[in-house]
Amino acid sequence: MSAVRVLYLAGSGRSGSTLVTTVLGQLPGFFAAGELRYLWRRGILENRPCGCGSPLADCPLWTRVRADLITADPAGIAARLAERLRLRGLPALLRRHRRGQPPVPGHPDDTHLARLYASIAEHALPDRASGVIVDSSKLPPYGALLGSLPGIDLYVLHVVRDPRATAYSWRRRRPLDGRADDRLMSRPPVWKAALLWLVWNTATVRLWGGRPVDDSTAGRYLRVRYEDFVADPAGTTAKIALFVGATPDDLPFPTPDTVRLTPTHSAAGNPSRHRTGVVGVVADTEWLSGLSTRAYAVVTGLTGVALSRFGYPLRRPTGTSPAATFPPDPVVPSSPATRQEG
Ligand SMILES: [Zn+2]
Predict the structure, then answer these.
(1) Domain limits of the chain?
(2) Distance CA 21, CA 264 (A)
(3) How far is Cα 150 from Cα 4, in angstroms, rounded to an integer?
(4) How would residue 331 be classed by pLDDT, with cut points 50, 70 and 90?
């Protein structure tokens, strides 16, 4: 059987990948699977809502996929994945990649991981040969693991967002999985958000953004800045579709700055994946005035070299004044319809 195309959204958190994934999920032949590295724990064990609104165990699509994974041990797989993909293993992972070895050493669990993608292809793609599974797990080590699994034809979409915007976004309080969930997503301090941005974006470039190792990896990396996506959603979506070998037909944009979203079956991810209907695609620029001078300087100082590489200015745009205090705490979660990051 032919390998299934997986479009892996790589990068750091709060980079707008949820919106990009949900939009891609509207294209014919694309399946927005969400953050599949969390499927085992958040989806299967904790039975959190699918993108369609049903608890995962009640969603007809995931019921079929889970039936194919009946021999897998979700708790064990989740625990071992966390261990195999941990941050402190990154230097060794990159070293193995440079030597042409599988970046993440193989494990018997990989049979179940490969079966997961094959099962999604069977049950969720109308046509396996032309279909695309969109996995927004983001974590570069997980993408590296996927790249060495049998039956997966990996395309990497590197979504980058200004780290000053992501640092600001991390500080907002929000439920982990919609309003019914009272647990909050983690809120790292500004310096930690900046370092994680730097580490994961640099790792993504090292793993996929350099010179292709051989012909089989040529043309498998596309970098998109979130700011460019919101400035031209239709143009950027078409570019991503062409990158992964699809025809950009039936784009879901009624107007240049709105998108029509129907429910997806994303297994895990940011709460904003549950939005449906016609939604405005506008740049979220609250951070420009909300981020304090000190926080702006901390993030800029820690990420400076990479900022220039990705085309972001070092100086705060003129005409935006910093808030007197940071963070503005507590922050009430605003209407999901107005938030465009994920
Ligand atoms: Zn569903």
Answers:
(1) 4-338
(2) 10
(3) 10
(4) very low
Report the separation in Å between the CA atom of 285 and the middle of ligand 1, taken as the mean of its atom positions: 32
Please give the pLDDT value at position 249. 86
- Which strand (E) or helix (H) includes residue 157? strand 152-160
Given pLDDT bands bounded at 50, 70 and 90, which one contains residue 340?
A: very low
Nearest to 214 by CA among 92, 122, 46, 100: 100
Residue 111 burial (C-beta neighbours within 10 Å; 0-12, 13-18, 19+)? middle
Rama region for 11: left / alpha / beta (φ>0; ψ in -120 to 50; rest): left
| Å from CA of 52 to ligand 1 middle | 4
186 pLDDT band, cuts 50/70/90, is low
pLDDT score, position 105: 96
Q: Which residues surround ligand 1, an ion (CB under 5 A)?
A: 50, 52, 59, 265
User: Cα(177) to centroid of ligand 1, in Å?
Assistant: 14
Tally of CB atoms within 10 A around 211: 6
Residue 75, pLDDT score: 98
Residue corresponding to tokens 């580490």:
199
Which pLDDT tens digit goes with each residue over 270-326?
Answer: 888 889 999 999 888 899 989 999 999 999 999 998 999 999 999 987 766 555 444
Q: How many angstroms separate the CA atoms of 19 and 342, rounded?
A: 7
The domain made up of 4-338 has a fold known as: Rossmann fold (3.40.50)
Q: Is 29 left (phi over 0), alpha (psi -120 to 50) or beta?
A: left
Q: What residue has token string 């089989």?
A: 216
Distance 263 CA to ligand 1 centre (A): 8
Q: How many angstroms does the Cα of residue 166 sit away from the middle of ligand 1?
A: 28
